[in-house]
Amino acid sequence: MLVLPSGNLMLLHSRTLISSIHRGITRQMGFTRTLCSHHEDPEMKDLMNYIDSLKNYEKSGVPRGAGTDSQEGFDLGRMKRLMERFGNPHSKFKAVHIAGTKGKGSTAAFISNILRAEGYSVGCYTSPHIRTIRERILLGRSGDPVSAKLLNNLFHRIKQDLDQAVKEENGCISHFEVFTTMAFILFADENIDIAVIEAGLGGTRDATNIISSSGLAASVITTVGEEHLAALGGSLETIAMAKAGIIKQGRPLVLGGPFLPHIEHIIRDKAVTMDSPVVSACDTGNKCTVKSFSIHNGRPCQICDIVIQVVKDSKLSCKLLDVKLQMPGGHQLQNAATATCLALCLRNLGWRISDESIRSGLEHTYLLGRSQFLTSEEAEVLGLTGATILLDGAHTKESAKALMNTIMMAFPKARLAFVVAMASDKDHVGFAREILSGLHVETVLLTEAAIAGGVTRTTPASLLRDSWIKASEELGVGIIHDGMAEYSELLKDQPVSSASNLGDGKTILATESSLKGCLRTANNILIRSGNEKGIIVITGSLHIISSVLASLDG
Predict the structure, then answer these.
(1) Does position 1 have pLDDT exceeding 80, yes or no?
(2) Do the Cβ atoms of 283 and 310 come closer than 8 Å?
């Protein structure tokens, strides 16, 4: 059971919390995606040129049916042949395999940090990355991204064999398959104790799903939602079946959730056929509660109780009070509970994991682009001195709802200006509907961001505007958009005394090709539209988050 705080349980008023953030420090702890140049290290030039020459479905979009167990699905045999060519490195370490529509990356981060806190050497493989492709592979007890030197040396060591493999597979080997191969070779070379591996798409036909039951410690399915519908069969049911493909014979399965009953039934049925015990983070004996919000190491955090008491299938028990999660939101508490259940499963399997390590791992987990507030120094670099800026890579209607819930819990009175860019294969109307359903949405500025370094999947801002207009009509929300005559009059200079009438209670909707232009306009609207503190929220894609962070480096 997940319990969220009511307004009267808040320790801090939103204005106090926001100003505390601006007095915060920039030090990052634990699982962190490094603030480095958006451009890759020159030492990796040959590697980047090579993998950029391969098929990249993150850039071009995933073909219909590619993630299904059908003739249209990705050829997992190709990945198996790659592994055989390099001595089956994936067989040389134990792994936790994670699939799910949302929450995979955060859950992987929580699990990895729990294991590191216990002293294990951990390999973590996730996607996509925010700043540098090296973030996808984290190595050892420190959890740092793989070094450019190590990655470059490995590439030159295996390039001849890669060339031969590409030739024998008629050029069908993908960017993701090569990088997954490199990750697994590095994990074997570094003699890690355990790997935490995030599936790229679905599960059944994903390149990471070459892990056998003998190599799998446990699998995790976080959530099932309507993302990549066409690639995964066209329905929630087919998506659930694809993700259930990571369940292996006799190995435990941890469910995050919550799931629709019939979707959970599909997954549990597969577990029964595989003789896999199931542990659910949503078990009725579990109670996870957000008690309050505070500031910890210069960042907002939520103070939570995580109490796990599972009696079905496997008996698990853990009581963690006043856990300080640096990633706020009810969805992140659910991810933390899922990671805790996984850690307890590993403990039952003989892995040494203390309650203290679980707490430490959870508290030291932090990811860029997940409910991330920029520091006052970073806001100043963007030319927005004094502005409060929140970055969140939400890009589905479910994650948009989670984002709005997080903002409402932490800052119930804050006025909001959204800057949004999205990929073309997302549910734009569903996303917009969740944002516009929230309170105090003053403006939405729509822009464009390159997706995986290309424009194939970029949605033109004008098309996004059509989706937001449609969503506003469905909700009956009043908007003023830049296709209306009154819009041009709206943003003319006017005295501060009339600022409270800006938009006359309607949400301002506009398009802007320049990201910096969007930020500047959002800030101006918040400054002029009222006395209550405002927040600029940048969202819609991890790729727009990457663009913002890259601009901090000039």
Answers:
(1) no
(2) yes
